[in-house]
Specification:
heterodimer; A: alpha/beta; two-stranded antiparallel sheet; 9 strands; B: alpha/beta; 9-stranded mixed β-sheet; 10 helices; 17 strands
């Protein structure tokens, strides 16, 4: 039984091929095909905007791929045949790009990103391009549909480039498709998951944690996980062992502190003095301190968490002295069961309008004696 | 690149060692109902060949997981979409159900959801669900497993996949619990029985049969276990096979659960009365409350079942009865999770196997099965609330915009959890499967 090929898959397939082909020989090819001079930078040297190789000294991580040097040739060779500008074939017929999708210009790629998540910056697992090139040849939807599969090395390069945010540098390619902003940033991907975007950005230039450090943290009470493949950022928790975790335990996170984005200290024995360890975690995005003994004073010790977006202080002794000014990116604050008074809550809300502050839950009132059912007559 | 693929979970070496301890009913331990209905049948089929992820899983896939946990509220019987979330005011098909406005401009829900109407900013409504299975058993199976029911193999449900691919966070509690009627469709399928859901019948009763009888003191109990281990040592050595070890694992899980300090998670009597009242004193309400407690103790996938939606007869009267528990309990759950900071990482799903016909059967005042268009809800776990995704036509008969197949809904759930959608996993018989049968995750739903 054959499944009818879905439009989105066909379009996506074509998108990938266009990307491949278009990127390689875009200048002369497009100019001759369309008769227009594309608005591209002729320079093929490593453009300033391409991901610089910022591997930390002494690390084993290879430099981040440059679009024009590493990805474009690959795409030219494997995808442009079907997914670039319309061209006339040997018989003089106009061959449109497969699935009406092209990759030979940044605007066309933006269109593909918007329409089908062809490339999701920072999120290789969400990128359709990667998914389709990984399919085995036997699969109807594998890309490219003819010829050899991409080699594992090629796929790895593509994945890495997407993981660091899919930067195109100065490359523009053929004119057309979605408008490209002056900054050439990843606005098209703003429709996709903002958190993935954030993590992609935070991971830039970072190398994964050293193996020995991770090995030491591989046993209870620790549970250390990577937030996504290809991403060195980590989330740390202590599930089922919260009672064993105290201020000293936190110090053991020192070797990986720079990579921690989520830290779950809920129900642990951590106190105010332990909070000082968090100053070595500048990339912390979400911090859970539910049911710990921290206080407003203790929280003042961690005033420099520039990326903190979510702070959970449920069932803590935090009171009206709580000061949020050290966390400019904070968007979610949870104060249920804390010592913050109504007046204190109002002050916080007035001072920090961007922060959503939850205190008590808005639970339904108890059901009336004859139940919730509201009889309707007629 | 491989360094970042590291998953460091609970210590499996310790668990394997503990595996050698077993328990039998005649030792004084009552049978612990950890296995789902399929547990026993899966015992003979527990080897997983050629998994691309290797044994004991865990490479977190390339996607960014925003949901750690799932609370899946399953509306059993086929929830009428016209009377709940996809209203068509002014049409003959709508019948007497009226629409009310909500705390989100432009979104209206049924008059039977007054509490929920104030939480629509947290919820994404999918009005373009589509299934091709219009019978209960098949529809339910498809919803839970993404595959069609076949005679030759049993497929795992999402909770089992999660347990298999990412492991349990809490090593002493089961990773997957089913409250209020595990009718067999939430199961480990061809995966090892340890991934099967723990079924809980009545949430108010806690976990039945999980305490050591008073007549057996702790030291006696330990000695019996020890003696049994010695007796079985020779057998285990001679027959060191996966299904033998799986059998051991079941008992190992049971004993660990009994000794777990997190067992109190199952005891909802510990919650204040006011909270228990807010959720609703019925089985579904208390089940939702239990689900929240289990999530707090790192149980990752909890299903709570609410039946009675099969309104062939007296649709409107029955809808009046069915909606209030959903209205109250879902509202309480969302508000409670949100206040505790849990909603960010907990995906709440309201799923049903199909919708109901817009055409009202006059002689019984009812609606019949209608799989080609229906509604489901998603909230939390990275989902952008306050939106309606997809559309049906003027009478709610067919989907006209942004169809979401059952497999796509499951792919979205799996995507939120960070499960590998495109990885092929092989059953013991060597057949290939993927987590949501090639469904596509609906990215637009995410924040």
């Amino acid at each position: 039984m054959t499944r009818p090929r879905r439009w989105s898959h066909t379009a996506a397939a074509i998108t990938l091929c266009v990307l491949c082909v278009g990127l390689v020989s875009i200048t002369g090819f497009i100019a001759s095909a369309t008769g227009t001079m594309p608005n591209i930078s002729p320079s093929k040297s490593a453009a300033s905007g391409s991901a610089p190789s910022r591997a930390a000294p002494g690390s084993a991580m290879p430099p981040a791929p440059s679009f024009e040097k590493d990805i474009l040739p690959l795409l030219k060779a494997r995808c442009f045949e079907c997914h670039s500008a319309p061209k006339r074939d040997a018989k003089g017929r106009l061959r449109k790009p497969k699935g009406d999708l092209r990759f030979d210009g940044l605007g066309f790629i933006r269109k593909a990103q918007r329409e089908m998540d062809a490339i999701v910056p920072g999120a290789p697992g969400k990128s359709l391009v990667l998914e389709l090139v990984r399919l085995p040849a036997s699969n109807d939807e594998a890309m490219p549909p003819k010829g050899d599969r991409l080699t594992p090395k090629e796929i790895a390069k593509l994945e890495q480039w997407i993981a660091v945010g899919a930067p195109f540098g100065d490359w523009r390619g053929a004119a057309g498709g979605d408008p490209v902003s002056a900054t050439g940033g990843n606005e098209a991907a703003a429709d996709s998951r903002r958190l993935a975007l954030l993590y992609g950005r935070l991971a830039k230039g970072l190398s994964p944690a050293p193996k020995e450090a991770l090995a030491k943290l591989a046993t209870p009470p620790f549970r250390v996980e990577s937030v996504a493949i290809g991403n060195p950022l980590l989330r740390v928790g202590f599930p089922a062992h919260e009672k064993q975790v105290d201020d000293e335990t936190l110090k053991q996170l020192e070797p990986i502190a720079g990579l921690v984005v989520q830290l779950d200290l809920g129900r642990t024995q951590v106190s105010d003095s332990g909070l000082k360890s968090l100053n070595s975690m500048p990339r912390l995005v979400r911090l859970d301190l539910t049911g710990t003994q921290v206080t407003s004073t203790g929280l003042r010790a961690i005033t420099r968490l520039p990326e903190l977006r979510s702070l959970i202080l449920v069932r803590t002794a935090v009171d009206d002295r709580l000061d949020l000014s050290g966390w400019p990116q904070l968007r979610s604050l949870y104060l249920m069961g804390s010592q913050v008074t109504d007046a204190g809550l109002q002050r916080l809300r007035d001072r920090h309008p961007k922060v959503t502050i939850r205190s008590a839950p808005n639970l339904p009132p108890p059901a009336p004696a004859n139940g919730d059912r509201r009889r309707r007559r007629g | 690149m491989d360094d970042a693929r590291l998953y460091l979970g609970s210590d499996d070496v310790t668990r394997r060692a503990f595996l050698s301890r077993t328990a039998q009913t005649w030792l004084g331990l009552s049978a612990v109902p950890i296995l789902g209905a399929s547990g026993a049948s899966a015992l003979g089929n527990t080897s997983l060949r050629n998994t691309s992820l290797g044994d004991d899983a865990v490479a977190i896939p390339g996607s960014l997981a925003t949901a750690r946990n799932v609370i899946y509220l399953y509306m059993s019987g086929g929830m009428s979409h016209l009377d709940t979330f996809d209203l068509k005011p002014g049409t003959d098909e709508q019948g007497p159900t009226e629409a009310i406005s909500t705390n989100v401009d432009g979104i209206r829900v049924s008059q039977h959801f007054p509490f929920l109407s104030q939480h629509m900013d947290k919820i994404a409504v999918i009005n373009s669900m589509f299934s091709h299975q219009g019978a209960h058993l098949q529809g339910r199976y498809l919803l839970h497993t993404s595959y069609e029911q076949r005679g030759t193999i049993e497929h795992p449900s999402m909770g089992a996949w999660l347990s298999r691919l990412q492991g349990n966070i809490n090593p002493t509690l089961p990773g997957h619990v089913s409250i209020g009627g595990n009718n067999g469709t939430a199961s480990a399928g061809f995966l090892e029985p340890k991934h099967a859901p723990l079924p809980i019948g009545d949430p108010s009763k806690g976990l039945a049969h999980s305490a050591r009888p008073d007549a057996v003191p702790a030291d006696v109990y330990a000695r019996r276990l020890d003696r049994l281990q010695k007796m079985n040592a020779a057998f285990r050595k001679k027959h060191d096979r996966k299904d033998v070890r799986a059998y051991d694992e079941v008992y190992d899980q049971a004993v660990r659960l009994m000794n777990s300090s997190d067992l109190k998670a199952f005891d909802i009597a510990q919650e204040p009365d006011a909270v228990r009242e807010a959720y609703g004193r019925d089985s579904f309400g208390q089940g939702c409350l239990l689900a929240r407690r289990l999530i707090e103790h790192d149980v990752r996938f909890v299903e709570v079942v609410l039946g009675g939606w099969d309104t062939h007869n007296e649709n409107f009267e029955n809808i009046e009865e069915r909606c209030p528990p959903l209205d109250r309990s879902l509202s309480a759950l969302l508000a409670d999770l949100d206040a505790r900071g849990l909603l960010e990482e907990t995906l709440v799903v309201v799923g049903t196997e199909f919708g109901r016909t817009p055409e009202i059967r006059r002689e019984r005042n009812g609606r019949d099965h209608h799989p080609q268009a229906f509604s489901c809800l998603l909230a939390g776990g990275g989902i952008k609330g306050g939106q309606v995704y997809g559309k049906t036509d003027a009478t709610g008969q067919n989907v006209i915009e942004k169809q979401v197949k059952v497999q796509d809904l499951n792919a979205t759930i799996a995507d939120a959890l960070g499960l590998p959608l495109s990885e092929t996993i092989y059953s013991p018989s060597g057949r290939p499967f993927t987590v949501a049968d090639k469904g596509r995750s609906v990215r637009e739903l995410f924040a």
